[in-house]
Design goal:
single chain; alpha/beta; five-stranded mixed beta sheet
Length: 110
């Protein structure tokens, strides 16, 4: 049975880094994208409810939560794709609200 504890790390994205949490596991991958008024902690209740069913991945956008300020121009889409690439994920379900929902739609149409 999977634990609520997950791998947390800073991942290189361009010239910067973003904080990422990955539950690991073999289930369907779900990428959680946070709104512009919060960081990835907004997904804490969802994480606790789904971690035993899915491989969950979330990250703090640059300058949010545990991610440092950006030192270069960036897009959330490019950072999300870099996070998935770092995790070795080629396909994921995307869940987002507000800013994160917009990023999810942009990724879906790539």
């Amino acid at each position: 049975m999977r634990s609520l504890a997950a791998m947390q790390q800073l991942v290189d994205v361009g010239a910067d880094r973003v904080w990422v949490e990955d539950s690991g596991g073999d289930g369907p991958v779900v990428l959680l994208l946070h709104p512009g008024i919060a960081d990835s902690a907004v997904w804490d209740d969802v994480w606790a409810a789904l971690v035993y069913r899915c491989r969950l991945i979330r990250f703090d956008v640059r300058a949010y939560g545990r991610s440092p300020q950006a030192t270069e121009p960036y897009t959330i889409v490019d950072d999300a794709l870099a996070v998935l690439d770092h995790a070795g994920v080629r396909s994921a379900h995307l869940v987002g609200c507000s800013m994160g929902g917009g990023a999810a739609m942009d990724i879906a149409v790539l």
